[in-house]
Design brief:
globular; Maltoporin, Chain A; binds copper (II) ion; five-stranded mixed β-sheet; single chain; disordered N terminus
């Protein structure tokens, strides 16, 4: 019962046993008498559970210290210990996905629907250097279900179906995996379909929050004599999906990801791992299809109908060699981004939002993991990365009719910024050095001490560097401010400390970790130095009586600290309690302000009643008020709340699990601090600029079937 070491037991039960698509033969069913109990494993993993939504973010939220910034139902962005966006290294099947959308509409998690997830995992605290380039905010992993090799040379046919339905506005999703395999070859086809209408809360509707996504992928695997090869092609297609916290909605985000993985065991006991990946994705967003377009109030209330067309091509590679205590390797990726804004009614109108933006990373690392003696284990790591960034020249035509007056003025102002940007030193290199030292000290059979120190660095994102016109394409910050990029930004450097223990017996476990991040040159929007040109553009583009605040990405100083823990208690053979607690505080060090969009103190507590083939549980999700908000970002406070969820699982046969539950049982109205503000002008249920409400009650049911 190895899962016992990984999880509070009720999560084991929550799991629909689809960790492997074919785990049917070994039911991971409740058993209070497990042999021994080791500490938490690294990375800390949770198997997939049946959710009320197709959004994998709802699983990530269950990891200690993790939370989700949500700008729409399919655009979950991971937050770990107060850091989010490009600061967190999110790996989907081992690969860091590049986003086609400059506002993170196709966030990495959007590439893997919940019905196809095998497990999600987290390196608690300091992520090892081997887990990726730019891991200042940690590494979080989501893996898809993969067929296993067969036992003999006969072909075996297997598969998995996971499907769910939630009554909150007809949310439904299904995933299917079918495979044929023997002991040498495996081949699988897997796909998913997600649909849902605009979501509801209390007596209202979040407009727009409909969702639509299809995925399909094929995988071929080969193994022989210590060699293993995997080839994988994934196609994803997100259709019209609302993002009420952003200025536009998703019309589509689609594309392909290609992966090749190879590993070989050598005679000397070493192992080589290699991976190649290529991604090609395109994205269209619009501000007038799922919502009413805004008007430019200072331009004679002219309709501001806009589309934005964006794309990314990226390729990456990773090779490492592991032998005894050592792992060394090199990796890198190159991504090229474009985004153009246009007016559907006036074809000649266009703005290059990002043109030929390149962000290339080259990196080498070495990691040494040593069991010094019975009670001391240490891991030391070093990584050097070169980040090269560049952007093409930008152009625009905001006055295609060649009108005089305001339009001519607008274009001449934009021309000034354009020329400034085109003459700036857009080619920038950054040298990053990551160093980590983590230690585990085993005090006795039940108790381990963990501590670690690290230095981690991150280069600016392309949005932070190359946003040349005051706009909101900021990788999903969704704070309602207009931003200016800053070509001359410096890299961020974080000094991180971690201290925790992991106490684990057969009847109970508790593993609190405290952390401190001292971040120099933290990149944050600060009030833009009044510039007549930028102010004039901002004023002319205004869609409300009050001009948007303009912030510019700048280097400031910050610190984040907090504690997160996860725990369980088996009270009797049938009753158990478990949960997580996560707290983080983010502050500026250069001013007395707080950091933006920091998760409030959050606890999940679940009481479960467990039988051999079924279990039921009641979960309390308690969230404190967030009063420590960022004045610089005009961030609004939120109140605390408690939600209660019911969930049940029934293992009907070895292969079939039925799940059902009710989320937000009491249909409580609440606002998720990480949920963004309503950008829609004409939703009678939510005022524009008000924080978006969390979802109302949702009764859901799901099925998981292995064959
Ligand atoms: Cu977008």
């Amino acid at each position: 019962m190895s899962y016992f070491k990984l999880l509070p037991i009720s999560l084991v039960l929550l799991a629909t046993f689809n960790h492997s698509a074919y785990a049917a033969e070994q039911l991971r069913l409740p058993s209070m008498s497990v042999e021994g109990s080791a500490g938490e494993e690294t990375p800390y993993a949770l198997p997939a559970i049946t959710l009320s939504t197709p959004d994998t973010g709802d699983m990530i939220k269950r990891l200690p210290g993790a939370n989700i910034n949500s700008n729409g139902p399919l655009t979950s962005a991971v937050q770990y210990r107060g850091l989010f966006g490009d600061r967190v290294n999110v790996l989907i099947d081992g690969v860091r996905i590049s986003q086609a959308g400059p506002n993170r509409m196709d966030s990495p998690l959007s590439y893997l629907p919940s019905s196809r997830v095998a497990d999600v995992a987290l390196y608690r605290g300091i992520a090892p250097v081997s887990s990726g380039i730019e891991t200042i905010g940690g590494t979080i992993i989501a893996n898809s279900k993969k067929a296993e090799f067969g036992a003999g040379d006969e072909a075996e046919f297997h598969g998995n179906t996971a499907a769910g339905y939630a009554e909150n506005r007809n949310t439904r999703y299904a995933g299917l995996l079918a495979s044929v395999a023997n002991d040498t070859h495996r081949f699988q086809v897997a796909g998913s379909v997600d649909r849902g209408n605009d979501l509801g809360f209390g007596s209202g509707t979040i407009r727009p929050s409909r969702q639509e996504r299809d995925t399909i992928g094929i995988t071929y695997g080969f193994q022989k004599l210590g060699h293993e090869l995997e080839l994988d092609i994934e196609h994803h297609d997100t259709g019209k999906t609302g993002t009420a916290a952003l200025p536009m909605d998703i019309m589509y985000a689609k594309g392909e990801n290609y992966k090749a993985k190879f590993s070989k065991e050598l005679n000397n006991g070493g192992k080589i791992n290699a991976r190649l990946n290529y991604q090609d994705a395109e994205h269209l967003m619009s501000n007038y299809v799922l919502r009413t377009n805004p008007v430019m109030v200072n331009m004679g209330s002219a309709a501001m109908k806009r589309n934005a067309d964006s794309d990314v091509q990226s390729q990456g590679y990773h090779i490492d060699y592991a032998q005894s205590d050592w792992k060394v390797g090199f990796d890198g990726d190159q991504a090229e981004h474009n985004a153009t804004i246009y007016n559907p009614d006036t074809t000649a109108f266009f703005i290059d939002n990002y043109n030929d933006v390149e962000r290339d990373r080259y990196s080498v690392f070495a990691q040494w993991n040593n069991q010094l003696n019975e009670s001391w284990n240490t891991e030391l790591g070093a990584r050097y990365s070169l980040i090269q960034m560049d952007a093409g020249r930008v152009n625009s035509n905001m006055n295609p009719m060649n009108m005089g007056g305001m339009m001519a003025m607008m274009q001449s102002n934009v021309n000034i910024l354009q020329t400034e940007f085109n003459n700036s030193d857009r080619s920038q290199d950054e040298n990053l050095v990551d160093l980590t030292a983590t230690f585990t000290h085993k005090i006795d059979e039940d108790l381990d001490l963990n501590f670690g120190l690290a230095r981690k660095e991150r280069a600016p994102s392309y949005q932070e560097r190359y946003l040349w016109l005051p706009m909101e394409s900021t990788s999903g910050l969704a704070d309602g401010n207009n931003y200016m990029g800053n070509v001359n930004l410096d890299k961020e450097t974080a000094y991180q400390g971690e201290l925790g223990f992991d106490w684990h017996t057969q009847k109970a476990a508790f593993s609190p970790h405290i952390f401190y991040h001292h971040v120099n040159n933290y990149i944050q929007g600060t009030l833009y130095n009044a510039n007549a040109t930028v102010n004039a553009i901002n004023h002319m583009m205004a869609t409300s009586a009050v001009d948007r605040t303009i912030l510019q990405f700048n280097n400031v100083d910050a610190k984040l600290y907090g504690i997160d823990a996860n725990w369980f208690v088996a009270m009797t053979n049938t009753w158990q309690l478990d949960g997580t607690v996560s707290y983080v505080r983010g502050e500026r060090r250069d001013t007395s302000d707080n950091l933006y969009r920091i998760a409030p103190l959050t606890a999940r507590t679940m009481l479960s009643y467990v039988q051999t083939t079924w279990r039921v549980g009641v979960e309390a999700e308690t969230v404190a008020a967030q009063n420590k908000v960022s004045a610089e970002n005009n961030e609004q406070k939120t109140s605390g709340y408690a939600l209660f969820n019911l969930m049940g699982n029934y293992q009907a046969t070895k292969a079939l699990t039925l799940s059902a539950g009710i989320n937000n049982l009491f249909d409580r109205d609440y606002q998720n601090h990480l949920g963004g503000y309503n950008r829609i002008s004409d939703n009678p249920d939510i005022a524009q600029g008000e924080r978006l409400p969390g979802l109302g009650r949702s009764v859901y049911a799901g099925v998981n079937f292995n064959w």
